[in-house]
């Protein structure tokens, strides 16, 4: 049921379908609509035939934790379509994806920019909130992220003072 695809290998139809679901969840959020976002490297999904139960996008990037280059997996657009919500698909997907992210993609941490209403959900899955000053690039220069930043670490949790996403946010 867990499928991992290179984002660039998705068909136009698959990308458009994802965008419809993403827009249903995040389409009315001004912060999201007013910014430029990085293109994903991978899509992790629970799907079978034409049924897409839950998915998230992943970006692999070297970011800067307190002036130290750190390879991370940036999780974005975690979405479960309305007709599949409340059945545990997102929790299962994120849990099953973790070993792949850390063991196969060889990242040091996973990083998620998170709204207040979803923080508890991710913390229940082992993510933890950090009080880091987060910055990212936009067309008009550097911006700072003012909401929740969550990390998932396979070993010892870290709490860097600053995180430079080293590019566009995800």
From TrEMBL:
<dbReference type="Pfam" id="PF13527">
    <property type="entry name" value="Acetyltransf_9"/>
</dbReference>
<keyword id="KW-0012">Acyltransferase</keyword>
<protein>
    <submittedName>
        <fullName>GNAT family N-acetyltransferase</fullName>
        <ecNumber>2.3.1.-</ecNumber>
    </submittedName>
</protein>
<dbReference type="InterPro" id="IPR016181">
    <property type="entry name" value="Acyl_CoA_acyltransferase"/>
</dbReference>
<dbReference type="InterPro" id="IPR000182">
    <property type="entry name" value="GNAT_dom"/>
</dbReference>
<feature type="domain" description="N-acetyltransferase">
    <location>
        <begin position="5"/>
        <end position="157"/>
    </location>
</feature>
<keyword id="KW-0808">Transferase</keyword>
<dbReference type="GO" id="GO:0016746">
    <property type="term" value="F:acyltransferase activity"/>
</dbReference>
């Amino acid at each position: 049921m867990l499928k991992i695809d290179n984002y660039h290998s998705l068909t136009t139809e698959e990308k458009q379908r994802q965008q419809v679901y993403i827009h249903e969840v995040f389409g009315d959020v001004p912060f999201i609509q007013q910014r430029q976002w990085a293109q994903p490297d991978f899509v992790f999904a629970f799907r079978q035939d034409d049924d897409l139960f839950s998915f998230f996008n992943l970006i692999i990037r070297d970011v800067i934790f307190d002036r130290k280059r750190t390879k991370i997996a940036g999780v974005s657009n975690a979405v479960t379509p309305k007709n599949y919500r409340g059945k545990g698909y997102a929790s299962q997907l994120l849990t099953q994806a973790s070993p792949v992210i850390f063991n196969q993609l060889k990242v040091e941490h996973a990083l998620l920019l998170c709204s207040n209403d979803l923080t508890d959900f991710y913390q229940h899955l082992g993510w933890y909130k950090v009080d880091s000053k987060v910055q990212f690039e936009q067309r008009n220069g550097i911006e700072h992220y003012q909401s929740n930043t969550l990390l998932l670490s396979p070993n010892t949790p870290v709490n860097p003072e600053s995180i430079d996403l080293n590019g566009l946010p995800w």
